[in-house]
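Batch 3, record 17
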Amino acid sequence: GENVEQHPSTLSVQEGDSAVIKCTYSDSASNYFPWYKQELGKRPQLIIDIRSNVGEKKDQRIAVTLNKTAKHFSLHITETQPEDSAVYFCAASSYNSKLTFGKGITLSVRP
Amino acid sequence: EAGVAQSPRYKIIEKRQSVAFWCNPISGHATLYWYQQILGQGPKLLIQFQNNGVVDDSQLPKDRFSAERLKGVDSTLKIQPAKLEDSAVYLCASSSVWEGATEAFFGQGTRLTVV
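Prediction for the assembled complex:
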């Protein structure tokens, strides 16, 4: 089955700096890669996703890049703000199969 | 559009007792997931339904956990008997599959504490 790994488990950045969070996956059949943000005590919410037929997708301050050859994808947050502080989960799935999550990374943005 | 509804929000039970959680997915979503999220970890899939059929239940501890999705809409997840290690947030999610994408929308979750 699919195995998704995130490293490191925590990341601290200064407000205004950029943050990059990386994930690797194991199943070459995976073709959908979402990123979820989970604030303390709240539900995970989708912030951006990418499919395997594109290499990069951007939405305002966030972007995701995908390297299918190396089987890794990354979340990029520019001009970080304190409200970006949360746990971020990456996930991977192939068509109609289960969505497998990584363990999550805690991002702290220092004011 | 209304989101995924779950109840109850919180539940405290003693070990060896039974408990049930309920989920109402987004209208029209054929796929429904139950995830277990232990504190400090990512969501772990317990079971995935496509309409009222089970797609994946490989990580469901079937000796104590059961789930059903009658009529392909609402779903219930049951634990009987509960163990201390079952303390977690149980998240229900639903998705509408198209073009290979499986964006999942999550409910607020049920926080279970087993004492």
